[in-house]
């Protein structure tokens, strides 16, 4: 139990209060003068202070107690202080609270109320100190990790992300395939960059490919290259991605949407390290470390027959799973502040805007189906439409989002760690992104695909998998 400091010049009062608090499990320290009290405040770890307001028999003004209260608050502003005296007025009590007292108790006191008041304040103080210690430990752990490793500018505050990043830098030198999973917009490409930056191949090529954007008929040419004349329009030699990444790292994003034909061709080169350019019979070798990422539940895709099990095990020697943003709320404000700094740096005048308290609360309360990507979009919007220097919830568009989520017939949002990694939550964010792109493109699939960085065929494959029918959605 937290320690209580009792400050009173009357021995009988000190004995009575010591007995009372010790009966309720508190350790008690006693001081008879302001100087003794300050020595205890400076030298001991206290949960709360119960102090008299007068320290001489003839004193009744409370000035001595007020001065001591100010001295205590100057040394430790967060230390709870309960003032006790038989000589004061309502105006004096108000002045005590203004000076920093947590509460005021008249003499003679009510034992039950006094123990409850002081005990609650002391427990709250202990909880705040423990939280501060934990935050400091987390901060030191993050700082040590950032000192030893290249974190590629990643911003986080949560234990969940610290575990993921710690594992990423641990496996980075191992030169084994890594599969990064998590919902859309959580930063899978950035985590892949961290693995590359801390690997033995950090100074070698780092080639990124959006596998979901590869048309089935061009998979082979894109990954392995093509000789002139290998297909219609191939007028010159084309180096493939494996050739470009030789000696370095190849990052295959959206691997879960690669066609079965593309999966077959990829598996062959992963098994043998050999490939042939399209239109060539010359076998080439590739020394490439493969990192891949997906928002799909690949074991479910394997069960459904849309993803090869043998390829899954080739890619998934180590799996790094990034939690959804809603499952690590400690990260939200930190990331938001970082993004606002970045927006200010890009702005012509370099004007920096801040988040108001209501906006911070709204950010933490929002469900973030689009994760960090949605957060960045909303902050960009807010920076443009705000009327003052402080961003408010309506600038972020979160008032409308909250109303929509509570509208009749609205689907309930999934919560919890399991929801973040299960199949229903990941496609829901993906579906929202695709539907928004289709609406903005007025139903023109090619235009929507371009805005998403996909080929038209790649977008059609996603729409088919998610059950999105354009006639129904955009009629």
From TrEMBL:
PANTHER family reported in the protein's UniProt record: TRANSCRIPTIONAL REGULATORY PROTEIN, TWO COMPONENT SIGNAL TRANSDUCTION SYSTEM SIGMA54-DEPENDENT RESPONSE REGULATOR FIS FAMILY
Gene3D superfamilies in the record: 1.10.8.60, 3.40.50.2300, Homeodomain-like, P-loop containing nucleotide triphosphate hydrolases
Annotated segments matching region Disordered: 404-428
Designated name of the protein: Sigma-54 dependent transcriptional regulator
Domain of life of the native organism: Bacteria
Residue stretches making up the Sigma-54 factor interaction domain: 154-384
Modified residues (4-aspartylphosphate): 52
A Pfam family: AAA_lid_14
Keyword entries, A-Z: ATP-binding, DNA-binding, Nucleotide-binding, Phosphoprotein, Transcription, Transcription regulation
Segments forming domain Response regulatory: 3-122
RNA-binding in keyword set: no
